[in-house]
Amino acid sequence: MSLDSLGWTPALALAFSDVLSQSSLSLVPGRVVRQARGLLSVQTAGRVLLARTAGRLLHHAPGAEALPAIGDWVALQLPAGEGEALLHAVLPRHSALVRREAGSERDGQLLAANLDVVFLVAGQDDDFNPRRLERALTLAWNSGAAPVVVLSKTDLLDDVEGRVQEVEALAPGVPVLALSAHTGDGVDALLAWLPAGKTGALLGSSGVGKSTLVNRLLGEERLATQAVREDDSRGRHTTTHRELFALPSGGLLIDGPGMREFGMWGEEEGVENAFADILALAAGCRFADCEHRSEPGCAVRAAVEEGALEAARLGSYEKLRREQAHHLRQTDPLVRKEYRRHMGSLIKSAREWGKTKRRGDS
Ligand SMILES: Nc1nc2c(ncn2[C@@H]2O[C@H](COP(=O)(O)OP(=O)(O)OP(=O)(O)O)[C@@H](O)[C@H]2O)c(=O)[nH]1
Ligand SMILES: [Zn+2]
Fold first, then answer.
1. Residue 319 is assigned to a ligand binding site
2. pTM listed for this prediction
3. Helical H runs in 67-152?
4. Which residues are involved in binding GTP (predicted)?
5. Any known ligand binding at 71?
6. Can you give the pLDDT at residue 322?
7. Which ligand has its closest atom nearest to the C-alpha of 205?
8. 44 belongs to an annotated ligand binding site
9. Is 150 helix (H, G, I), strand (E, B) or coil?
10. How far is the CA of 285 from the centre of ligand 2 (A)?
């Protein structure tokens, strides 16, 4: 498999030659394609190798987020014979999906690196939960990748279009796809987000059908799904490792363990984008720094009173804002920069929309 087909870019080539120039070792580039706990597999131009993180990298890493994870591009020292390769450096990431470690105030957990798209998969059965979707969207916006909501198992639904509209209302400006991995309906629309060399990740609770979807996209039963697993008494987390798959269509897709909950981690803009409707309303508040509590001329409160905005939605917005105040911290400057560039225009258009709407109303 060539590096190009794994998503190698000129920017990565440049970063890699930087690493080479600062090292006396003979290193080769590769991408982490499998992660099972601490165990990494790296695909190089030649082959897939098991890799161990070099002690220097382990000890100098500022936090868990700096350590290599699925999707990362890395610099490897090849083993002399059979053994493991040594992973000496992680090349700069253009995006990073980070979840706050459960129970930890500080450490973020890197779920996947260098994603172009994050597919937030929501099941049709008992899994569908608007508040969780909002959280997931915030997580995705913060990564620097584009979020796309995927409603799975549409074959179980009578009113697919109605459900799509419902979700579109929760996530203004975010594409919403509906598909069935069983029938194949809607699967092409997802593939359209993954042209050759682009990387996506499937994020969603256990049982929403992520593995079934990967099997369908690969055209073979590569992954065990809950239906085929013998002992299904626990009924969750059939997938216990993360893996990057090269799809026949040229795109790259990461499947991972189901996520029971989404923590909040990262920058303020993530919340703003998941709540673009509230942001747009806030543009109509009398005071620019309105906190939407009891200020006069608050357009957000007014919308709640008129029934145009759900009070619960405003509540979860405020909750996320509060959580973020505790967890703001510097992320990778590269990620930050790319993210700003990527999202700046969306925030601007949400503001513009708010202004026109206000003019139209008065
Ligand atoms: N009706 C219907 N069932 C589906 C569809 N996709 C998946 N399922 C079923 O949903 C169950 C869970 O699917 P999985 O693919 O194992 O779910 P997962 O998200 O990978 O779960 P974890 O590996 O535990 O994270 C299985 O019984 C599948 O057969 C679909 O499009 N329609
Ligand atoms: Zn206000």
1. no
2. 0.72
3. 130-143
4. 152-155, 204-212
5. no
6. 66
7. 1
8. no
9. strand
10. 5
Can you tell me the distance from the alpha carbon of 31 to that of 34, in angstroms, rounded to the nearest whole number? 9
Pocket perturbation via mutation, ligand 1, pick of 128, 177, 205, 226 by most ligand atoms within 8 A of CB: 226
Domain CATH code at residue 295:
1.10.40.50
Give the number of whichever ligand sits closest to the CA of residue 229. Answer: 1
Query: Are the C-beta atoms of 79 and 85 separated by less than 8 Å?
Result: yes
| 331 annotated to a ligand binding site | no
Residue nearest to atom 16 of ligand 1 (CA): 225
Q: In angstroms, what CA-CA distances link 102 with 13, 36, 118, 330? A: 36, 19, 21, 19
Do 206 and 285 fall within a single domain?
A: no
How far apart are the CA of 308 and the centre of ligand 2, in A? 14
Q: Which atom of ligand 1 is nearest to the CA of 237?
A: 24
Tell whether residue 240 is among the known ligand binding residues: no
Q: Are residues 146 and 249 in the same domain?
A: yes
pLDDT per position in the chain (362 positions), as tens? 899 999 999 999 999 999 999 999 999 999 999 988 668 999 999 899 999 999 888 888 777 788 899 999 999 999 988 889 999 999 999 999 887 654 455 566 788 999 999 998 887 754 556 777 777 888 888 888 999 999 999 998 888 998 888 888 877 788 999 999 999 999 999 999 999 999 999 988 777 888 899 999 998 776 666 554 444 333 444 456 789 999 999 999 998 654 433 433 333 445 556 677 888 888 888 887 788 888 899 999 999 999 988 888 888 888 776 655 444 333 334 334 444 544 454 455 455 555 555 555 44
pLDDT score for 100 = 62
Q: What is the ipTM of this complex?
A: 0.95
Q: Is 154 in the pocket of ligand 1 (CB under 6 A)?
A: no
The secondary structure of the chain in percent helix, strand, coil, rounded to multiples of 5, reads 35, 20, 45
Its domain, for residue 320, covers: 268-361
Q: Is 206 in the pocket of ligand 1 (CB under 6 A)?
A: yes
β-strand partners of 41: 34, 50
Residue 21 lies in a domain: yes
CATH number at residue 188: 3.40.50.300
**What does the angle CA 131 – CA 187 – CA 246 come to, to the nearest 5 degrees?**
100
Q: Which residue type occupies 342?
A: H
Measuring from atom 1 of ligand 1, which residue has the nearest CA?
153
